[in-house]
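Would you mind writing out the residues of a protein together with its fold in token form for me to study?
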Amino acid sequence: MTGSADAGAGPHLAGLDGTLREALERSLADRLAGGPGAELNLDNAFWGAPAPRDLGEALTRLGPTCLNVVVRIFERLRDIDPALGLSRQIMYLRNVWFGGSAGFKVVYAEPAAMRERLDERLAGAGGRRMARDTILGGIEHQRGALFGALPGSIASLLRGGEPLDADSWREVHRPDEEAVHICVGKLEPRLPELDDIHLDWKSPVVGVNEATRRCRYGFFIGVVHWTQARFGLGKPVFPLQRIDDRIAALSGRSDAAAPWAEFVARWRDARWTLAMRGGDGAQEALQWLRACEELAPAQRGDG
């Protein structure tokens, strides 16, 4: 997944928030032990390789960008619920992704308690608000493809009813900016695809309908959000991955100039620390990306 060799994530684990590290360690330990419901835990770290031996190795296989996504979500959950009630409901993390949105599939410790905690965040006491989606706002998180889910939801949609398969809550923060979106499935036995927590890069939420306690959406930003989430249009740059890909593409060049070699060495020392710093680390990585792009073209053009 990455292109520059280093000692991996292991030496940097002290930089992880305690609640997050506990969730990651629990996810790995229970999968390695064959615990019930743990067979998909940290799935990316198990793709095409022997099982990781420890958390450092698992996170190294996950890669800096996926790790950064996880850290950023835990940061936002802390801002929403400083008492960490939401974060502590994350029993297991499953596969992590990034693209038109970014997040991870999840196993909740107590789904009913997670729902209750999310509804309590509507008031926003001590943190940011969360509000439930309307049935239309959450339709993309029902079972099956979007247009497959729509016919079965028409009746509920017309009468203002409830989603069929999963409820979802959105962070009420700033429209058109990054916000967390939390989905909790309603079906038992639980279906892995329905429980997830992810970042939307452009939130469609412009406020809350206080009478219904549901999100209000802007039309134009809603269209932008949907096309981005579904098709990746206008998705952000992922600087940690972009730099790793550039280094991988240029690896083995015998004509590398000293400034490029020095950059690669400094990047190997820095990338895991940046990944574990969440949103601030991602912003700082953009500066590294600019430096990378200034140096790398000369390498591609020579020889």
About this structure: The chain has two domains: 10-231, 239-301. The two ends are 27 Å apart (CA to CA).
